[in-house]
Specification:
The complex is a heterotrimer. Chain A is an all-alpha fold. Chain A has 7 helices and no strands. The chains are: A mainly alpha, B mainly alpha, C alpha/beta. The complex binds sodium ion (NA) (2 copies). Chain B: One of its GO terms (cellular component) is plasma membrane.
Chain lengths: 184, 435, 309
């Protein structure tokens, strides 16, 4: 669907351009996080291969690989989530929305994006509070190499905050909404 | 509140949120944050945060991005053509041969890819146009693709197995992965038999002019040799697990390495290929894992309010025949997955199903494999199913309605296969018991 | 608000209800409290299906639950003073008389939790359960061994690599070979059905192990003195009961495991003789790493009464 038709469908006019620079910064941060996420996945693969080799060829498993990998998993998932939001490919059951007439469909999509943005923002806030608690009381992980837990948990509020902003931006500017849902 | 009201309310709200089109992860978040506020107030937020943290730092789930990455690299490294050409030669002269090529290709690809969507899209783009232009029946072509793609989550490696296995206690993920092998081959054979029967009964389903060339034994051997690198990948993944050398996550990492080596052998390797694969893999993983992480607390909340215990007592008190119970447990996903996402369903169902399985003394390996196949069927039951949509996305000149029509025979065949596995449990449990 | 006389308390447990460490202590404690209060104070149970074992300290601290039944190593990231008790001799009466329990209680109260009881699951604590027999020195060379942080220094000293994981995951990990063994108490392997998947229990046994029952401090303060005393009394009595009760259970379990496919494999005496020292020093090392002076003071206290190394 073309951008114009999308706007028409949403029953909206083109948005005030003063938000455009804000969106550009948001998209830049999102895309940067996405690349970091891809690099971290590369690191995870490398660490595992190294671990297998060390364990089976040199009989010397490391103490830190496993733990590091699980920390990396948190970062890689949460840093990629905002880009998925930007592309609007988070899984949704959209048969109902698709049945609606164009005008209502646009409205509904805006409302759904707004709702998703708000709940993600709420989750960012909740998990940020928790990360602050972990920081204040200096709580360590229960893993072999104990590190402050907030080092890892901080990616959760960061990821959800960016996801929230992306969905809010979709709600504010329907031209940013792509329509193909990617599927698992 | 009585447990059954709590359960009904929780499930109702959640399903309603999903049905109106809220992203699945957001629906779970709304239900969970709402649930926490309702039953324990803001002091329960720590519990909520922890449930996300636990999921995204769980070693089991590292397998997911790695399996996806492996598939991405293989898909981008020309493996489709190599495999397709080799299998084409092996099949040789045969009436309706492209149907069988699709089935063979999807069976082999299922051992390389963990997701039905990826295989459906790949077949829809690569083989479907050929089939259409050569005069193969559209409906039967779509059928073989839908059926073939559905083997991917059943034959290891499988993303669904990782998610199921990590949520179910005391079942070995390695065992659960391997348990899918025989069922996968069984399903593949059933699909093949159906095609044979259809083509026998109705000759115009297969173009008479398109019977292919007969290749010599030497050519066949050469073609087979050309596919050896895939053997490396399969060995790196399943071989290392079976030999007990690596955990599923480690095996997935070595599978990625194997896939990269394959790309090198086929001279497709480039940094761009790896980079694109990495980007794609983290995106898909984030999409799946955000749902898993957001849903984690849901089961805990049901347990907290006593809904799980209530349901167990209730089901335990029923004097239903175990076979009847099995049918009920299998019908629920079959019907619900017509309309909802199978990941969402499994995340909902596992905490409720698990204690019932224990009460009835079902063999967990057997039951969860049936459950896995059932969810796979859910992905091809109209109107909502990812495999259906993936094929629609890849096959431009086919309508969704046509795809729906070809899906039903596939559904029926898988249900028959499911019945066979239910009656002959050793088809499922024999291989994992060798581990 | 005025102190409450009757209370319905909600207890969160790190163990499932049928697991021996809970089964032989939890219900008995609940029963005692109920009896002593004439039925005014009741306790309900919530298991690890509602909150994962390693994540339970915070929700009780936050007041979502009133009581916590756990092993202190399961919250070692928050404080390690509790787990240090596993390096202190099991003598329930002496532990209280010389102020060990009081000291730990004070420490936890600063973190919003009240220590109600610290029952030991027997006079002796642990052993290693292994997939393969011991051969040579160091005995755990190249093996990955499941253990909470308390064991980590000892496992490393024996040449192994420690890996922490919740109870519920150990069976699968042993089966798959994700770990080559597990450090565990002298009861529980039977309930966990380890005899189905591994064959070896290693001698010698070492250390001591106990569970702890904590209460959210606000919930505690809301109770009237009579109810508080009832809980403390029940806590003290269960400590004394548990020791002898578990000594018997340990012997029964050893016999049962031996009759059901498990055999003993022994560490070389050069290592085995060092077990008590390795264990105690390891535990104190871990405790001091997280909790610094608070742990060191506890060690001094216990040492001055000859209850630890
Ligand atoms: Na597969
Ligand atoms: Na469906």
């Amino acid at each position: 669907m073309s951008a114009e038709r999308k706007i028409e469908a949403a029953g909206e006019t083109r948005l005030p351009s003063r938000l455009t620079p804000v969106f550009r910064v948001l998209d830049w941060v999102t895309s940067f996080a996405y690349r970091v996420s891809a690099l971290i996945l590369l690191a995870i693969t490398a660490l595992y291969c190294m671990e297998i080799a060390l364990r089976y060829f040199f009989l010397s498993p490391t103490l830190w690989t496993r733990d590091t990998i699980t920390y990396f998993l948190c970062a890689t998932l949460l840093l990629a989530a905002p880009q998925v939001a930007r592309d609007n490919t988070h899984v949704a059951i959209n048969i109902f929305v698709e049945m609606m007439p164009q005008r209502i469909k646009g409205r509904m999509e805006t409302i759904l994006a707004l709702l998703t943005g708000l709940i993600s923002g709420g989750v960012a806030w909740i998990t940020a509070q928790d990360t602050i608690r972990l920081f204040d009381s200096n709580i360590l992980t229960l893993t072999t190499i104990a590190v402050p837990k907030w080092w890892i948990s901080i990616f959760i509020p960061i990821g959800f905050a960016l996801v929230a902003l992306q969905f809010l931006s979709l709600a504010l500017d329907p031209t940013r909404m792509g329509h193909d849902k990617r599927q698992v | 509140m009585e447990w059954y009201w709590a359960l009904t309310l929780a499930l109702g709200v959640l399903l309603a949120l999903m049905a109106v089109g809220l992203p699945v992860f957001a629906a779970f978040l709304v239900a969970n944050v709402g649930g926490v506020l309702l039953v324990m107030g803001p002091r329960g937020f720590g519990l909520f945060s922890n449930s996300i943290y636990e999921t995204v730092t769980s070693e089991t789930f590292v397998t997911i991005p790695l399996f996806i990455l492996m598939g991405e690299i293989l898909f981008r490294s020309g493996s489709v053509e190599v495999l397709s050409n080799a299998l084409d030669k092996l099949i040789g002269r045969m009436r309706g041969r492209l149907y069988f090529l699709v089935i063979a290709l999807s069976t082999v690809f299922s051992a390389l890819s963990g997701s039905a969507v990826a295989v459906a899209a790949m077949l829809g783009r690569s083989l479907l146009p050929q089939m259409t232009s050569k005069g193969y029946d559209k409906g039967l072509s779509n059928f073989t693709i839908l059926g073939g793609a559905s083997l991917a989550p059943i034959i290891p490696p499988s993303l669904l197995v990782i998610v199921i296995g990590s949520l179910v206690n005391n079942v070995s993920i390695a065992g659960l992965l391997i348990a899918g092998l025989i069922p996968g081959i069984l399903m593949s054979s059933l699909i093949g038999l159906y095609v044979v029967a259809r083509v026998r009964m109705q000759a115009d389903l297969a173009p008479a002019t398109e019977v292919g060339t007969q290749y010599s034994a030497k050519e066949k051997c050469l073609a087979l040799a050309g596919t050896l690198p895939f053997g490396i990948v399969i060995f790196f993944v399943m071989g290392l697990i079976i030999l007990g050398v690596a955990t599923p996550s480690e095996a997935a990492a070595s599978g990625v390495l194997g896939a990269a080596v394959t790309a090198v052998i086929y001279r497709r390797f480039s940094l761009k290929l790896i980079w694109d694969s990495l980007r794609s893999a983290v995106g898909i993983s984030a999409m799946i894992m955000l749902i898993v992480a957001s849903s984690k607390l849901f089961g805990q909340l049901l347990s907290f309010v006593g809904a799980t215990a209530g349901l167990i007592d209730y089901v335990g008190g029923l004097s239903i025949d175990p076979w009847m119970m099995l049918v009920v447990l299998m019908l629920v996903p079959l019907i619900l997955c017509m309309f909802i996402d199978q990941f969402a369903f499994l995340l909902l169902a596992i905490p409720l199903y698990e204690p019932i399985i224990r009460t009835y003394g079902f063999d967990p390996m057997w039951f969860w494999t049936l459950f896995l196949i059932n969810l796979t069927i859910g992905s091809i039951t109209p109107p909502f199913g990812y495999t259906l949509f993936a094929l629609k996305g890849a096959a431009q000149d086919t309508t969704l309605n046509e795809i729906y029509r070809s899906a039903w025979p596939a559904v029926v065949i898988f249900v028959i296969g499911l019945g066979l596995l239910a009656v002959f449990p050793s088809l499922v449990t024999a291989l994992p018991s060798l581990l | 608000p005025a102190p409450v006389e009757a209370a319905e308390l909600r207890m969160l447990s790190g163990f499932s209800p049928n697991f021996v460490w809970y089964r032989e202590i939890g219900p008995r404690f609940i029963e005692m409290v109920q009896e002593k209060s004439g039925g005014d104070t009741t306790i309900s149970f919530t298991g690890p299906d509602a909150v994962p074992t390693f994540e339970q300290f915070q929700p009780v601290q936050a007041g979502v639950f009133d009581l916590l039944f756990t092993h202190p190593a399961y919250h070692s990231g928050t404080t390690s003073v509790g787990l240090a008790i596993d390096a202190i001799d099991v003598d329930p009466v002496k532990r209280r008389d010389v102020g060990i329990i009081d000291y730990i209680d004070q420490h936890y109260m600063q973190r919003g939790m009240k220590l109600i009881s610290a029952p030991s699951t027997g006079t002796k604590g642990f052993r290693y359960y292994l997939r393969e027999p011991i051969d040579g020195v160091p005995g755990l060379n190249g093996r990955i061994i499941r253990g909470t942080v308390s064991y980590h220094p000892m496992i490393k000293a024996l040449g192994g690599s420690p890996l922490n994981m919740p109870v519920s995951e150990i069976y699968t990990a042993l089966q798959r070979g994700t770990v080559d063994g597990a450090a565990w108490g002298l009861t529980g392997a039977k309930d966990l059905k380890w005899n189905e998947i591994i064959k070896y229990m290693a001698d010698p046994v070492f250390g001591q192990v106990g569970v702890m029952i904590f209460m959210n401090l606000d919930s505690w303060n809301a109770l009237d003195e009579k109810t508080q005393n009832i809980l403390l009394e029940a806590g003290r009595e269960i400590e004394v009961e548990a020791q002898s009760h578990f000594d018997k259970l340990q012997a029964d379990e050893f016999e049962w495991l031996s009759a059901n496919g498990m055999e003993v494999t022994s560490f070389d005496p050069s290592e085995g003789n060092e077990f008590e020292r390795l264990w105690a020093e390891g535990v104190w090392e871990v405790a001091a790493e997280v909790s610094g002076d608070d742990a060191r003071k506890l060690r001094e206290l216990a040492k001055s009464h000859g209850m630890t190394r």
